[in-house]
Amino acid sequence: MSATIIDGKASAARLRAALAEEVAEFTAEHGTPPGLATILIGDDPASAVYVGGKQKACAEVGIKGFDHRPAGDASREEVLALIDELNADPAVSGILCQLPVPDHLDGVELTNRIDAGKDVDGLTIASAGRLALGMDGLRSCTPAGVMVLLEEQGVELQGAECVVLGRSNLFGKPMAQLLLGANATVTMCHSRTRDLGEVCRRADVLIAAVGVPHLVKGDWIKPGAVVIDVGMNRLESGLTGDVDFEAAKDVASAITPVPGGVGPMTIALLLRNTLQAARAQRRATFPS
Ligand SMILES: Nc1nc(=O)c2c([nH]1)NC[C@@H]1CN(c3ccc(C(=O)N[C@@H](CCC(=O)O)C(=O)O)cc3)C=[N+]21
């Protein structure tokens, strides 16, 4: 048996096409498009590629991009002042501070300066708290993208055994919360988990986000499981995930490739969040 290769690139393209229509309607109705401000501090080449991709995607769906690039030695006060300015700017619906930030700055502090209504990354204390409490709100883009892929595959999450490898604030924790919200049985694993392979073998849905190339072996996968690879490891041989894809595809029923799986969905969900934020801001400003 060979697994279905989940085409995240195609899903993301469909989502962007649908969003382009919704953005056009929003813009016609309100006279101004939704706006997304990105903040990239310094000139890390990998981060510059990601932020460039986000800006390009905005332009393609009709969202106005604001591309801020403070120098790598920008002071804390300088960046906080920039965020305050964007928080107050009605043309800016969403704000994203690209992580990681240089060592002399605190990414958690900077992220939390973002107005909760403009937190399109879903990473502020308010957004994380709303998710944990089962309230509506802006969701972290990569986990939200994974939920879209699982839904499109028709994966039944209610009562399913879902195992999440990795407990980051950016991905693992919000992923687990979204799965819980869909009534899955969720197990979280991390670097101190004993018998990782044993736990993984229980999973109907196995989601890996640890940043260790090919950590997940073929015999860690239950036959027929759905495998989602969130790893983005840049090796000399190219970009590779956390799953031994060649071995996994003979065991799983469906699997995401790297690249072309979860990555493109992250950017599409960022656009969706920006539109969601813009709509909520209009509602708050002009109650009907
Ligand atoms: N505040 C913040 N929010 C983020 O969402 C955020 C961040 N910081 N820091 C870095 C990570 C990483 N990330 C990716 C987005 C898209 C791809 C993506 O499109 N990947 C393509 C390949 C890209 C390539 O070839 O390099 C793919 O998987 O097919 C990857 C990684 C967002 N991040």
TrEMBL record:
Q: Which InterPro entries match?
A: Aminoacid_DH-like_N_sf, NAD(P)-bd_dom_sf, THF_DH/CycHdrlase, THF_DH/CycHdrlase_cat_dom, THF_DH/CycHdrlase_CS, THF_DH/CycHdrlase_NAD-bd_dom
Name its pathway.
One-carbon metabolism; tetrahydrofolate interconversion
EC annotation? 1.5.1.5, 3.5.4.9
Q: Does the keyword Heme apply?
A: no
User: Which reaction(s) does the protein catalyse, per the Swiss-Prot or TrEMBL entry?
Assistant: (6R)-5,10-methylene-5,6,7,8-tetrahydrofolate + NADP(+) = (6R)-5,10-methenyltetrahydrofolate + NADPH; (6R)-5,10-methenyltetrahydrofolate + H2O = (6R)-10-formyltetrahydrofolate + H(+)
Kindly give the Pfam families that the UniProt entry links to this protein: THF_DHG_CYH, THF_DHG_CYH_C
Q: Using the record's annotation, list all stretches that form the Tetrahydrofolate dehydrogenase/cyclohydrolase NAD(P)-binding domain.
A: 140-281
Could you say which residues bind NADP(+) here? Answer: 166-168
Enumerate the UniProt keywords alphabetically. Amino-acid biosynthesis, Histidine biosynthesis, Hydrolase, Methionine biosynthesis, Multifunctional enzyme, NADP, One-carbon metabolism, Oxidoreductase, Purine biosynthesis
* Gene3D superfamilies assigned to the protein according to its UniProt record, in alphabetical order: Leucine Dehydrogenase, chain A, domain 1 (3.40.50.10860), NAD(P)-binding Rossmann-like Domain (3.40.50.720)
Tetrahydrofolate dehydrogenase/cyclohydrolase catalytic domain residues are 6-121
Annotated function: Catalyzes the oxidation of 5,10-methylenetetrahydrofolate to 5,10-methenyltetrahydrofolate and then the hydrolysis of 5,10-methenyltetrahydrofolate to 10-formyltetrahydrofolate.
Q: Which HAMAP family match?
A: THF_DHG_CYH (MF_01576)
Subunit structure of this chain's protein: Homodimer.
Q: Which family does it belong to?
A: Belongs to the tetrahydrofolate dehydrogenase/cyclohydrolase family.
The protein's name is Bifunctional protein FolD
Q: Which organism is it from?
A: Svornostia abyssi
